[in-house]
């Protein structure tokens, strides 16, 4: 008897965890996830994208003014795994706003939307589309990403609540509560397949997710408008749209409200020893600010809100500008062709550009798979004494280098991660410099610039799914080899002692000679400064010692006692003129002693740099000096005036206004003469110093 064969058809199921593995687990971190969302906003033709992070409620918002998503886009593309939600056929956008040029699209893998899970567990998505036919209704969805971590359920088991709202309307708290209940009700139906811990986490998050989008976006719009008013006063601003961005939820664009944020975000906004954050390292330079274009395609902001303090802007300013590039010591700009040959201009020590060619021979004349690309970078001498850059500009560029130094990679004008991060020296320039100290010149820490590639010309230079660099295929290896050869040969041709172009070493020899002379001058000045510092410190120490030993109180007491004793020497049989002369001399004597006492407590701070200890001692001196004046000098002055007045009343004496004015004028004349003599002396010393300096410069 034959058994009947049964044909079974199986279908592949997709676990909910697939979304988590394709999204959150593929992204290097929160800064990378935000960078992906910026790219999505760029592809949606946004002119502005702003992030606001509120530390206290642990809530983050992202708002852009792009073309937004229709309900069909959201359900058919954004919520569909494996699609890039912005593309039509042949990488063409579905809609280009009026008065805007077509942009090369960045989103190819569709992972930006899934990357939101890296930022926080719960997100409210609000998007209002604009198309040729006008504005669409707003589509709103609520997604709790923790659902996609449950291994026992499939994607089809998960419900994403979606609502639409007509023009002029935003969801309110009741709408958000309704969508939250929809998620909870669906989890209740799945019963035992949902672990209790995950169920409680989702429910607690949804219960805490209570706010009014109308109020939230209204307050944020006020901040946006205020910031725009402030930034519009700067002439250096390269933003195309100078009017205030409209990011209030009622216009077109996409907004995300994320809560609670992952604890890693706090670490990403914490400043390091160079006063920069991990988030800044990733998000600054999103668009190529060193490009030939004079306008910024999309303005990006990231604000941190801490209590009632003013929001702190992290990424708006501070990155390198074209002026920085041309202000550095050396500037190189050029292009590599499809065979790896460089043609461009090399500017050494801010001189005249020199046209130069560097060949790459490893491909034996065959075309490269990586394709042609451009490069422009600047280099700052590590020692300020060997730099032609003015001191202030040198300090500014050096400060930026400590935070953002490195060579950045841009694809169609948008930064490719993680190239440019100070710790990501993908060409191993520092390592090669260490191994070949005698021949290597460039240091990654002292250079900044951009390598420019494009989708059309460099299609084989492909980003990894997690955005942690380019896939290390043959094209990428060629790309690195061409660049390493370029930097080696550039150092040999321009920055070594026997280079074909000797400008670098000629100027460096001049710097050496100047440095030697400067060292001698500085040594003399240092000795002079040390002498002034020692005198100043000695004066302060003497003052503190006298104060502690009550010397100043005893000196004033002696002045009072001496005055009392002198007054007692007066004779009753003196004539009135004799008594006038007697008390007048006592008054002059008291005034002289008071002046001498004031000189004894006066210390002049020298015009030199002081260490922290001396500065603290100086501050203490100022406080104690005021105390001496208030508690010793002023009471003593009153007591001495009383002694003199008592004598004058006892002998029926009085000074006329004329005599008092004459005395005051004489005193002022004496003080003025002293000041003029001091000024003449200082001018004479200054002229002598200037004369020596001029002669030195002439030599």
Describe this structure in words.
The structure is a single chain. The chain has 699 residues and is an alpha+beta fold. It folds into 3 domains: 17-313, Histidine kinase-like ATPase, C-terminal domain (Heat Shock Protein 90); 322-501, no CATH class; 525-654. The protein is built from 18 helices and 15 strands. The protein has helices at 17-22, 30-43, 71-78, 116-119, 173-190, 196-208, 213-231, 264-268, 278-283, 322-327, 391-404, 429-435, 474-494, 503-548, 551-568, 576-601, 612-650, 657-698; strands spanning 48-54, 59-64, 122-131, 134-144, 162-165, 253-258, 299-305, 312-313, 330-336, 342-347, 354-358, 373-379, 406-411, 414-415, 447-453. The strands form 2 sheets. The protein has an 8-stranded mixed β-sheet with strand order 5-4-3-6-2-1-7-8. The protein has a 7-stranded mixed β-sheet with strand order 11-10-9-12-15-13-14. It is flat and about 155 Å long.
């Amino acid at each position: 008897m034959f058994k009947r064969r049964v044909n079974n058809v199986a279908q592949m199921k997709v676990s909910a965890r697939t979304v988590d593995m394709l999204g959150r687990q593929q992204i290097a971190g929160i800064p990378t996830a935000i960078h992906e969302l910026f790219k999505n906003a760029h592809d949606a033709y946004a002119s502005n994208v702003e992030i606001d992070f509120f530390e206290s409620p642990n809530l983050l918002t992202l708002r852009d003014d792009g073309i937004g998503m229709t309900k069909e886009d959201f359900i058919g593309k954004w919520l569909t795994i494996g699609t890039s939600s912005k593309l039509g056929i042949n990488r063409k956008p579905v809609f280009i706003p009026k008065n805007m040029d077509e942009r090369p699209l960045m989103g190819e893998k569709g992972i930006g939307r899934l990357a939101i899970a890296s930022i926080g567990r719960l997100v409210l998505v609000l998007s209002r589309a604009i198309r040729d036919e006008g504005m669409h209704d707003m589509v709103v969805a609520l997604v709790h990403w923790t659902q996609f971590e449950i291994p026992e359920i499939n994607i089809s088991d998960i419900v994403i609540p979606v609502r639409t709202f007509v023009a002029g309307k935003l969801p309110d708290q009741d709408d958000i509560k309704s969508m939250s209940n929809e998620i909870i009700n669906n989890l209740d139906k799945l019963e035992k397949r949902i672990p209790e811990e995950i169920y409680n986490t989702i429910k607690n998050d949804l219960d805490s997710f209570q706010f009014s989008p109308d109020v939230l976006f209204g307050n944020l719009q006020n901040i946006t408008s205020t910031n725009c008013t402030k930034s519009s006063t700067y002439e250096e601003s390269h933003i195309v749209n100078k009017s205030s961005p409209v990011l209030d939820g009622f216009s077109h664009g996409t907004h995300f409200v994320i809560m609670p944020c992952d604890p890693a975000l706090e670490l990403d906004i914490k400043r390091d020893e160079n006063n920069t954050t991990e988030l800044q390292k990733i998000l600054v330079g999103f668009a190529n600010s060193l490009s030939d274009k004079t306008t910024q395609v999309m303005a990006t902001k990231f604000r941190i809100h801490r209590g009632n303090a003013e929001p702190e802007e992290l990424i708006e300013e501070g990155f390198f500008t074209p002026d920085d590039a041309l202000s550095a010591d050396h500037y190189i700009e050029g292009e590599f062709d499809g065979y790896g040959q460089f043609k461009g201009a090399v500017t050494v020590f801010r001189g005249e550009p020199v046209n130069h060619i560097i060949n790459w021979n490893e491909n034996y004349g065959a075309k490269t798979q990586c394709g042609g690309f451009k490069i422009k970078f600047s280099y700052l001498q590590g020692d300020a004494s060997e730099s032609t850059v003015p001191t202030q500009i040198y300090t500014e560029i050096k400060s930026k280098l400590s935070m953002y130094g490195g060579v950045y990679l841009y694809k169609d004008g948008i930064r490719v991660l993680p190239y440019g991060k100070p710790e990501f020296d993908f060409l191993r320039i520092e390592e090669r410099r260490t191994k070949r100290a005698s021949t290597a010149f460039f240091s990654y820490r002292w250079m900044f610039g951009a390598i420019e590639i494009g989708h059309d010309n460099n299609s084989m230079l492909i980003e990894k799914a997690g955005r942690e660099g380019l896939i290390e295929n043959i094209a990428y290896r060629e790309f690195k080899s061409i660049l390493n050869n370029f930097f080696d040969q550039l150092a040999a041709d321009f920055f070594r002692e026997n280079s074909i172009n000797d400008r670098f070493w000629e100027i460096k020899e001049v710097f050496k000679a100047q440095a030697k002379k400067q060292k001698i001058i500085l040594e003399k000045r240092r000795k002079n400064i040390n002498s002034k510092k020692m005198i100043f410190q000695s004066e302060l120490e003497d003052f503190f010692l006298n104060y502690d030993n009550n010397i100043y109180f005893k000196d004033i007491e002696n002045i009072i006692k001496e005055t009392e004793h002198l007054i007692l020497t007066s004779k009753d049989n003196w004539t009135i003129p004799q008594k006038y002369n007697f008390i007048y001399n006592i008054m002059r004597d008291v005034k002289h002693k008071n002046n001498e006492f004031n000189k004894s407590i006066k210390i002049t701070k020298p015009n030199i740099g002081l260490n922290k200890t001396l500065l603290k001692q100086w501050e203490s001196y100022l406080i104690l000096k005021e105390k001496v004046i208030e508690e010793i000098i002023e009471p003593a002055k009153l007591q001495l005036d009383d002694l003199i007045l008592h004598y004058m009343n006892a002998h029926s004496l009085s000074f006329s206004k004329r005599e008092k004015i004459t005395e005051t004028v004489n005193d002022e004349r004496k003080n003025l003469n002293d000041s003029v003599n001091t000024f003449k002396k200082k001018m004479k010393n200054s002229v002598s110093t200037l004369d020596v300096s001029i002669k030195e410069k002439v030599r």
